[in-house]
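Box 3.1. Reading complex inputs
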Amino acid sequence: MSDTSLTPGIVAGRLDPKAYTENFSDLHPRLEGHEARVAADRCYFCHDAPCIAACPTEIDIPLFIRQIATGTPEAAAETILSQNILGGMCARVCPTETLCEQACVREAAEGKPVLIGQLQRYATDTLMEAGTHPFTRAAPTGKRIAVVGAGPAGLACAHRLAMKGHDVTMYDGRDKPGGLNEYGIAAYKTVEGFAEREVEWLLKIGGITVETGKRLGRDMTLAEMRGAHDAVFLGIGLGGVNALGLEAEDKDGIANAVDFIAELRQTGDLASLPVGRDVVVIGGGMTAVDAAVQAKLLGALNVSLVYRRGRDRMNASPYEQDLAASKGVRIITNAQPVAIHGNGAVREIEFEYTDNDLTPTGQTFRLAADQVFKAIGQTLEGGDLPDLEGRKIKVSGAGRTSLDGVWAGGDCAVGGDDLTVTAVAQGRDAAEDIHASLMG
Amino acid sequence: MANLETTFVGIKSPNPFWLASAPPTDKEYNVRRAFEAGWGGVVWKTLGEDGPPVVNVNGPRYGAIWGADRRLLGLNNIELITDRPLQTNLDEMTRVKRDYPDRALIASLMVPVNEDSWKAILERVLETGCDGVELNFGCPHGMSERGMGSAVGQVPEYVQQVTEWCKKHSDLPVIVKLTPNIADIRKPAQAAKEGGADAVSLINTINSITSVDLDLFSPEPMIDGQGAHGGYCGPAVKPIALNMVAEIARDPGLRGLPISGIGGVTTWRDAAEFMALGAGNVQVCTAAMTYGFKIVQEMISGLSQYMDEKGFASIDDLVGRAVPNVVNWQDLNLNYVTKARIDQEACIKCGRCYAACEDTSHQAISMSEDRVFEVIDAECVACNLCVNVCPVDSCITMERLAAGEVDPRTGLTVSDSYANWTTHPNNPMKCAAE
């Protein structure tokens, strides 16, 4: 082994080859059958269950858990997927500790909720591994609908529309469909190409044509889309990345966290992926945590995650924060970057402590950094979009935009928590509204 | 520490925990392990006539039902009596009794219903030095089809006849083991008593099919695609056994007849319940088959602690203590008025009480927008279902209305006097009875 964690600079192959496999293995391996039945047995089958209300897609959680407990995980999966067609991915990436599992009465009672997320994965994996697709298309309607963006919102919308009998063309600017599921989530949450397999499985419904490499504003306009289709759904996400606004932000070694994560997800050989010795991630959301943890897992010696406000304001859940800490990421709060130092490439980054109102305190410190990842939020990109509200597409009802025949959902639209599961709910609900509008 | 020493029909044992006649007591090796583990007595696996032994099935003998985490709740078996030569068993029993003189050793017997057969087997077992015999009138499978086991136990006349033969041809204490596969357990118990039995033991196993294989469409346990009913035992049968024990204990004609309690005894608490209902000792099988012989240590320590806490010096202080409180329905006090009370601090807002009451009972629990569940006294009949379905211990309780309070459901003032159905104005039988 030529390079180690101590090697300065951004280099590949810091770890023993076996370590990569171990570091990037499944964060929560799938439950075995007996484990699943024991976990399922803990569900009280609550009346008007709080977990259902806490799920943005309103999956009937007690019902699917009872179906698992009685030995029919396939039926459980159908219960899940009928509400949330990406139930498999959501089972892996949902912050369940702030959604269904937080609402679980056993969380209130004992601090130990039913393992809803893991049970959901058990059910959906069982069904998907059998290769069956439990939904069929309605009679063709002859309506043609464009879904722009093949991320969670677009996929959910396209599936529901196809199920209703419409012909859907799904466009995406990247080489593969899946959006953030494919490019934007830590590898250890979705191992063995799950995102890609899930899209393949979803498309089994039929009636959906996927056109990749077609980005709105680059390869086509919204006006063209509207002209060629009966309706358009925009699920284009947030393509731009916020800048720090510092001088020398273009120095070598400074990159966007989303690009690092995307590259990591698409790399066949993790040992070939270079990573710094001293990595600094700026930001406090899931993207920041995913970048920081994966940098550490690639063999970085020191990884610091620096957030300008207090811990309680971080968008990353306490669970994610603990995960980062357990992997050796140092979390520094109440500090914002004020200067980048280095000659050509970044060497150090200077921070100033702030109070909770972001008022500078005058106290500064420097962190050694040969690699800096920016994760301070993303922005909407694209031309001829519908009216915005703030920095996102303005919507009313089930994703209706200011333009007739154009709906929007997911991260690009106002509302929701920018979660996969929220995007699925918005895509699904927009599809129902599109269907009602076209067939009304 | 409380004295657990027990004398049951004159047979002494260091504690009231005996192993029932069953697979765990089929061999010297097992029984020695049981005595080493601390069991107070053993009823040896049922012996049959001399001659070629019975032949068991060569496929599965047991079927089961499970609760959460595959906890065994009920077991059924289609095993027969011992399938080893009579002399082998007798020799082993002799050696074991010689080496463990302080433990109870009982011979369980099952031979055809004729006097000579019983006389012959009694003479043989006497040589072992065993402390008593138990007549197996209970097994519901295999042997019953040959006119033995429950085929005898279901006919009181046979029970009495065989008991008489045994008393006539032996001085050993005779315990008659009763089958629960009968409408009124008191009838065979009465027959046993009239035949001179020293005690009855109950229950033997219950006719059962544990499950059906939905691919093969065969009952379990499955033998080559088919299944036969077997004897059901384990924790699931305990409530049935408790009732049958109590029925005998409280029957005026049977009062004082010693009872050895059997049926799902798994913990010291189960044993104490049987004894409170009149059992002088208990016999255990399924719990030992599930967890091994070591469980007796928990039974001994648990019963000792309980007896110390209660100030019971000996087993006799416990036996039968609950019997006077087992009554017929018509004797229950109708002036005992209770209402469900929900401890809001303990409530975890699962809503199971609400679903149960709203869907299947009396619509006596309200649910607010923010999931506060409250009892509507004007509707609550105190059925206890909410208490039973609540997953939180002691969250819902039944509280008695004090005398003088008005029951908002009936509008009647609660009386502190006792009044049962026989005195109730709505009872059409009341006038006739007077």
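In summary: The two ends of chain B are 53 Å apart (CA to CA).
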